[in-house]
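User: Batch of two.

Assistant: Item 1 of 2:
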Amino acid sequence: MTSTNAATVSVVVIAYNDAGLVGEAVTSALAQGPVVAEVLAVDDASSDGTASVLDELAALHPRVKVLHRAENSGGCGTPRNDGIAAATAPYVLFLDSDDVLPPGAADALVSAAREHKTPVTVGACVRRELPQHQDVPWAANLYTPGDVIERPAERTGLVRDTLCVNKLYERAFLDEHAIRFPDGRFRYEDFVFTARVLAAEPRIAVIGDLVYVWHVRRDAARVSISLDRKDVGNWASRIEAHRTASRILTESSPELGHACQVKFLEYDLRMYLREIGRDPEYQAAWWTLTREYLAGFADSDIEAAGAHARWIVRVLRATATPPADLARLARFAAEPPRLEPPYATSAAGLPVWSEELPVELDGLAELPTDGLPVTIDARAAGVAGLRLRVHDLYGRLAAAGPRTARPVFLPRSGGEPVRGEPVELRPAEDGDGWVCDVPFRLTTIAEAGRRQGRRGMQAWGVQIGVECADGSSLITSPRPLDGLLRRRVLLSSRYGVLLAQPYRTGGGSLAVRLAPGAAGALSFVRNRLGRATARVKAKAAVRSD
C-alpha cells in the first residue's frame, strides 16, 4: 500500500568512527520511503573515514544531508541536538549509526501520530544480540498497542523506557518545551532527554509495529558507551544521569519521580551488581559509590521496591566494604535471581542474609512460588544426564510440595524452546532439598536446532521448571557444579560427531554450545577465534586511549 505520509520526518543519524556500519543505518532510513523528508547524518569529528562514507551517500541521495562537527563532542547528546536544530520536517526520529530502522517504521509512527494528534508516538523495539541474531524485546510488557496515554503521571511505569530511539517526536513539541539532550561528554543522555519529555506531559500514542532494531555487539573492539563498563566511571555516569532524570521528574510529578527511584533499585542496581566482576579495586569503588548514592533514597522508595531489590539495598547499607559473599550477592541480582545456600536465621528465627550480615529477608513469606529465588544445582550424571538438587528456601518451597523437574532448552539466538520430559523429584537422603536425574541429550537438542533452521554452532540456555503439588510452579536457571563444564565429543548417527561445550554464563547459569558435524565444529573454532581476536583488539584500544 502506498503511503500518504509524504515528507514528514527528519531522521537524525549520529555517527562517530563507524564507517563500516553507518551506511546500513542511513540506507535503512532512506528505505522508509517518501515519508522521510531528510536524513540528517551528524558526523562527530570521526577519524576513520565515516565522514567520507556519509559524503558519498549524500552525493547519491539528495535526501541525505551531512553535518560535520569540527570537534568531537564526547557523547551522543550534542550531535543529536545539532540534528534537531537542522531538522525541517514536522517530526523527528533518532537513529544510531550501528542500528537500523525496520521497513515501514516511520510510516506506522506518523500514521498513529496524525490519527491521535499526539506529540509523542512509541513503537516496539528489540535488542538484537550479534552475531547470534537473538532478538530480545525492549520494555515488552510496558505498552499496549493501540493505546493512547493521556498523561504520563497516570502510567508511572513509563520511566522504565529510557530510550529515545523507539519514538517519534513532533518537532514543535520539542521546541516549545526546550527539550534537548545534555551536551558534551554526558553518558546515558537518553535518561535526561526522556525525563524532560515525560515532564512536559505529552499525550502518547502506542503502536505494536517494530520500529527500531538496537544492535548489541558485545565482542566489538570498541563497544558502545552503555556496554563499556571496564571502570567504575560508567556506573558513576549512570548514577549522575539517573539523579538528574529523577530530579526533573519529581519536579513535574512526585509519582513519576518515585517510580524513577524504584526503577533504579529494581533494574539499574541489579544489572550492575550482577556484572561486578572479580577486580577487588573495582568492587570496592563500586560499593562505596553505590552506598553513598543510596543514602539519599527515601525509605518510601526502598519499601516500594520488590523484595529482591530491598534485600540488596539493605545488604549494601549494612557494611561499608564488600562482603565476603559478594559473588553470592551478585548471583542473587541475576535474572532469574538465585539465593544460594547457606540459609541463616536470626536469634528470633527469622530468615536473614547471612550470619555475618543478619539483614532480615522481609516479605519472603508473601512471595508466590514463582517469585522465590530458588537455587537448583546441576552436576553431570553420566554422559547424557543432569543430576539436579532443588534447594528449599526457609521451608517456603516445601510448603508448595515440589513434585517434578523438567529441563527446558532456550535457543540464545531466539526461537522456540525445547522441553524435556518431567522427572519425579524425591527427597534428598541428607535432607537438603529434593533430587532427581534428568536426561541431558545434547544430540536431540542439536537436531531440534537444525529443524529450526540453525546451521553451524548453536547456543542454548538451560532452565529447570519445577511443578508443585499445590498447583504452583517456578522456573529458574541451574548453577553448574563439579565436572559438568567439561567439553564433550559425542557420536551422532546423523552428524557423525557432535562437539558440546557446557559453560557458565556471566550470571552464573548453565548454558551449552553445540557444534554438529564438521561444519559446526568449524564454526565453533571460528567463534572462539573471533572472541579471542575481539578481546585482543579491545585491550589494544584501551591501551591506545
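Item 2 of 2:
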Amino acid sequence: MSTRWLILLLPPVFMVVAAAVLAYVFQELDDDNVDRIAAERLTLYQQTIIGEYQKYRYLPYMIARDPRATAAIGLGQPVESANRFLEEMAENSGADLLYVMNAAGTTLAASNWQKPLSLVGRNYGFRPYFTAAMRGEEGQFFAIGLTTGRPGLFLARPTPVEGDPVGVAVVKVDTSQLENAWAEGGELVFATDADGVIFLSSQPEWRYRTLAELPAATRDAIASSQKYANEPLTPISDAPVTGPNQLTIDGQAYRHNSTDVDLLGWKLHFLVPQAEAHKSLLPIWVITLTLCLLYAVIVLGLRGQRLRRASAALRQESADLKELNQRLVGEIKERRRVEHALLEAQRGLARSNRLAAVGEMSAAVVHELSQPLAALRMFVAGTRKFLEKGDTHTAAENLQEIESLQMRMASLTQELKRFARPGESRIETVDLRDSILAAEKIVRPRFEETGVALIIEMPDLPLIVETAPLRIEQILVNLLRNGADAAAAEDNGEVRLDIVETGDTVVVRVLDNGPGIPMNLRERIFDPFFSTKTSAEGMGLGLAISMRIAEDLGGDLAVSANVPRGAAFELTVPAVKSAETMDTPVVRLEAEVAE
C-alpha cells in the first residue's frame, strides 16, 4: 500500500521540483533585469541632483564679489539696497533664499527681508556651511531651515573671495522639486546623507527616518547643528537585512539598489517591491498547481472505479454480517444476565463492608472508653477508702474527678463519631500545655500501677497552637499509656515527654526506654488492629486512631528509635506565630512511684 502511494506521488513531486528550478532561474533573471533598470534610473536621478547643484553653485561666489550685496557687511547693519538687490537676484535665478552674514554669523541682508519669516537679524553662525566659508572654503550643507521650516541645500562662499573673510554669502536651493518629480514618476526613490538619514524621498512618510539606528555620537552631532530640527530620526525598519539587495520597510520587502551622488556623502536609493520584481514567478506556480490538480482528478477518478468494485464486494459481506449480528444479540443477552449477577454480588459486598465499618467503630469505642473507665475505677476505689477514713474533703475532690471523667467519656463518644467524618472537630487556639497536663492526669493511675516514671519537660511560657484540644488529649493519652506499657517490664522504666518548637509547628515527643519497635514493624504500627502487644493487652486501634486524628488536624504522627533504647513518637501540630521564642526556662514534672 505505501509503495503504491509513493509511486503515485512521484509525478506531482517531479512537477514541483521542476517548478522550483524554473522559479529560481526566472527569479535570477528578474533580479538582473530589475538591477539593470535601477542602475539606469539611479544614473538619471544622480545627474539631476548634480545638475541642480551645478546650476546654483556659482551664485554665492557672485554675491560674495558684488558690493551691492556686501555693503551691509561694511556698514555693520542692514541696508535696504542690499536687501532689494538680493530679492531681485533670487527672483531671476530661481533660488529659494539669498542672504549675507557678518563674521559673527548674523544675517544683515536677505532676499525675504519683507516677509514675516525674514532672515534679517537672525544668527546662523553654528551652521557647518558658515564655519566652512569662514575658513575660506566652499560651504555645502543640507538641512531644514530653522526659520522657514523648509528643507534645502545651503551653498556658501566667503566675502571677500580672497583674503581674510569678513562675512559669508549664502544661497538656499529648494529640493522639493526633485521629490515632486520622483513622486510623479511613480517610482520609489530616496536620498540619504552621510549618516544614513533620508532627507529626500518620493514617499513623504519616509523623510527624516534612518536606514539603521544612529549612534549616540552621531545624534549629538546632528542635534548640535540643528540639521533636521526636532525630527526624531527613527529607523525606517527594525527587520534584519536578508541580503545585499534586500530591504524591508514597514513590513514590506523591496529589491534595493543604490549609488553614490558624489556630493556631501549622499546616496541615492531605488526600490522595487519584491512581488513586482518577481512577477514572472506567479505564472510558473499557477501552471504547476493546475497540473497537480489535474493529475489528482485523474488519480481520484481511477480510484473511484476501484471503490465501486469494492462496494459490490461489501454488499456481499453485509449479508454475512447480518447472520453474525444475530449471534451477537444472543451473546449480549447472556452478558446482561452476568452483569446483573455481578451487580447483586457488589451490593452484598457493600453490605459486608458497612458491617465491617460498624464493627471497627465499635471496637474503637471500646478501646477509647476503656482508658477513662480504668481511671474511673481507680477514683471510685479511692473515694470509698477516703470515705471509710472520714476524709470527705479528698473524697469530694475524687468525685469532681469522677464527674470530669464522665463528661470526658460523653465528649469522647462524640469525638469517635467525628472520627468517621474527618474535619468536623472545632479548631481552637489553645495552650498545648493544658492538653498535656489533662492527658497526664488521665494516665497517672496507669503509671502508678506499672511503677514507670513519667517525666514531662515543657516551656514556662504558653505553647499557643491551633487544634482541637480534646482530640489532642486523645493522642497524648494513647502515646503516654503505650509508653507506660512498653517500659513496664524494665527495672528503671521511664517515659519522657518534651517539646520542640520549630516556628510554624510544635513537636511533642514521647520517648520510652522499653524494648522499642523493630524496623520491619514500623511501617505497620499505625495500621488498624495491628499491635506489638499480646491479644489480651491491646486491640491495635490506639495508634491508628491517633494517626487519623493527627492528619485531620493538619499535623502528623511518626515513630522512630529512641537512643540508646526504646521507641520515640513525634506528634506535630500547627503553631500560632508569635514573638516569643523557646529560650525560656523549662518546667520539669517528675513522678516516681516506688516499686
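The first strand starts at residue 97 and ends at 102.
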